Task: inverse folding
């Protein structure tokens, strides 16, 4: 089994996992992986992550031209922007999961990091979560905003839309996304209660121990 075949099957498995955990619904969301030769595998447009077919997954050149498979997700362009800006990124998860999208619909006094560092695992796997201003679905101008934010962040939240999370593998990106959604749940469960998020020195200690 070659690398591409194995990766296609892994995308199918991860899509089914995310769908079963109710992090993906309908035909919303998309997954991608960058192969060793620089080409991109991405889930097709209007496909359900719970019912992907390995041979129909879209394969693109680094510039976005379709090589094989079905037409790619209409949001493929911001996947390319992340890969161009983050050479170490090998996979991207973008979903419309309920709690994270709810955070994206709130008014935030500051947009550099819109979830508090409630747990060490959020700091380790998600890092800061900047909010990207709203763009309509499919608006190519979003790519430049995503590119700018990607320079210093592996995760971000699109306003009134949902998160984009990158990782060094599809497993890492999926686990980070799950951690983000769980932190968003905690955020709403805690509500207006007084909380004790991690202090700056504790965050710095985590980042030293677990560099990205």
Result:
């Amino acid at each position: 089994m070659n690398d591409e075949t194995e990766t296609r099957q892994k995308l199918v498995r991860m899509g089914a996992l995310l769908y079963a955990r109710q992090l993906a619904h309908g035909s919303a969301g998309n997954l991608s992986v960058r192969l060793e030769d620089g080409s991109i595998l991405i889930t097709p447009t209007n496909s359900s992550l719970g019912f992907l077919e390995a041979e129909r997954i879209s394969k693109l050149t680094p510039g976005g031209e379709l090589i094989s498979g079905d037409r790619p997700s209409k949001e493929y362009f911001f996947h390319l922007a992340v890969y161009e800006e983050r050479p170490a990124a090998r996979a991207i998860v973008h979903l419309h999961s309920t709690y994270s999208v709810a955070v994206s619909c709130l008014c935030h006094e500051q947009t550099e990091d819109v979830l508090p560092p409630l747990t060490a695992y959020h700091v380790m796997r998600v890092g800061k979560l900047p909010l990207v201003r709203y763009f309509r679905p499919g608006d190519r101008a979003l790519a430049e905003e995503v590119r700018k934010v990607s320079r210093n962040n592996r995760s971000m939240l699109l306003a009134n839309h949902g998160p984009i999370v990158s990782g060094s593998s599809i497993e890492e990106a999926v686990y980070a996304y799950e951690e983000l959604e769980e932190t968003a749940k905690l955020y709403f469960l805690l509500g207006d209660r007084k909380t004790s998020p991690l202090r700056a020195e504790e965050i710095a200690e985590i980042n030293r121990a677990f560099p990205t």
In short: The longest strand covers residues 162-167. Strands lie at 30-34, 40-42, 58-60, 66-68, 91-94, 131-132, 155-158, 162-167.
